[in-house]
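Quarterly update from the structural biology core.
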Amino acid sequence: MKKVTSLLVVFLFLLSCSTVPITGRKRINLVSDAQILPASFAQYEGFLKENKLSSDIKNTRSIQDVGMKISRAVDRFMRANNMISEANNYRWEFNLIEDENVNAWCMPGGKVVFYTGILPICANTDGVAAVMGHEVAHAFAKHGQERMSQGYLQQAGGLAVAIGTANKNPQAREIWNTAFGLGSQLGMLAFSRTHETEADRLGLVFMIMAGYKPEEAVNVWIRMSQRASASEAPPEFLSTHPSNQTRIKNLKDYMPTAIAYAKKFNEQAAIQQEQQQQLKNQARQ
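Predicted structure, tokenized:
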């Protein structure tokens, strides 16, 4: 039974492996869009009913304008890279919530929320674009689906440990279960930090594609590190997010790659658009 369970876990892992576009990271996804998106959209709608939308028209419009520009850039990228069915599944929506928490998030399928508390950290339109690109990137890379999949595999791993230690004495079983619990928890934290780093990189590419200044992404995290509560953050290996300093360094290091990638894509997209327009003009003649 132990061997069967282990083989099943390996089989599911191999069956569900795919590659995140742009970064090239291998991911595992046991959850389809059809399974997660209806629940995601319903939860988002419920959240909006239970929370107060900001009455600040200027900032609300800024969030929505930036969101639409970046989501259009993502949509262009997906359609240009044969991800048409995935692109069609997104239902982009951007809302500003009256809440002093310094936070923003994006649910699977493109449902984004900014809290008013993060606006001073954003500071300007390019700062909003940096945060928006990061959140949109989570949905693009299907991090929500991947976290659910990782949870399923973690449960299967726990079952395998339980079955494998069934014939051992209680003390040995406790040691094995404790070791697995600690190891899997730290593994999940590292997994989450991987997602955050990937979203930072993808977000940088997307904000450049949409015409925003990527240098402001670094400034956002400099401002984040200057908050009074920043010194209270736990050690990085015990956190779901990389440290502010790690993020600043990673963004600076990746920026030349992001600029080159976005520039190349925008140039190719412009050529394709011009060719399509020429074909339309010829068809009218």
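Residues 244-284 form the longest helix (41 residues).
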